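Q: Predict the bound structure with zinc ion.
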Amino acid sequence: MKNPPKLSCAKCHQSKLVTDFHEILISGELHPWCHDCLQKQLQKNLEISQRLKLAPKRPCTQCGITFSIHSFHWIKSTKTRHSYCRACHAVYMAMRYARVKGEK
Ligand SMILES: [Zn+2]
Ligand SMILES: [Zn+2]
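A: Predicted complex:
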């Protein structure tokens, strides 16, 4: 009897039967990750997206766009989030730095 073909999973590096790999319908190729790893990753993605969905949102006081609070810098000293989003904060810091340098 011929040995069934085996594949090494790109994620857990275990040698598994090709039937343990998910076939990608569009290309007809096998996913480089085995079912177990794929399942775990999907579960993780789901948890992350749920967490992000649950995260409260707030508008940036600079650009007015509403972001999830993860887009705001956490200020350790005051235990609050910065009122500028990360992008605006970066611009603000760059401007402040330029001003400080200019004063010298
Ligand atoms: Zn695997
Ligand atoms: Zn902003």
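A: The chain is about 35% helix and 30% strand.
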